[in-house]
Amino acid sequence: MSVAPETVWEPKIIGFFCNWCSYAGADLAGVSRINYPPNVRIIRVPCSSRINPYLVLRAFQHGADGILISG
């Protein structure tokens, strides 16, 4: 009997990044050709304090496994 190799689970992460603070760091990483994992999606928002909880719930409904809110 052969054992199937373990599958590697990678969570789908949605990052809501503040336009004035943390998005600049993510943009600089891209310009500097620093890679971040392909399972992370970054969404630029005007301000992290203005994120509606409904938006977070919708991300989970559409398949996100985790949310990162960065200001």
Keywords:
71 residues; three-stranded parallel β-sheet; 2 helices; 3 strands
Protein model, in words:
It is a single chain. The chain is flat and about 55 Å long. The chain is built from 2 helices and 3 strands. It has one domain. A 3-stranded parallel β-sheet has the order 2-1-3, with helices on both faces.
Short description:
This protein is an alpha/beta fold and 71 residues long. It has one domain (16-70). It contains 2 helices and 3 strands, in the order E-H-E-H-E.
Fold blueprint:
Elements: E1 13-18, H1 22-31, E2 40-45, H2 53-61, E3 66-70
Parallel strand pairs: 1-2, 1-3
User: What is the spatial order of strands in the main beta sheet?
Assistant: 2-1-3
Structural classification: alpha/beta
What is the string of helix and strand elements? EHEHE
Number of strands: 3
Which percent range describes the beta-strand content?
A: 15-25%
- How many helix segments? 2
Q: How much is the radius of gyration in Å?
A: 15 Å
Tell me the count of domains: 1
Which geometry do the CA atoms define? Answer: flat
* Main sheet record: 3 strands, parallel
- Helix fraction by DSSP (H/I, runs of at least 4): 25-40%
**Mean pLDDT across residues:** 86
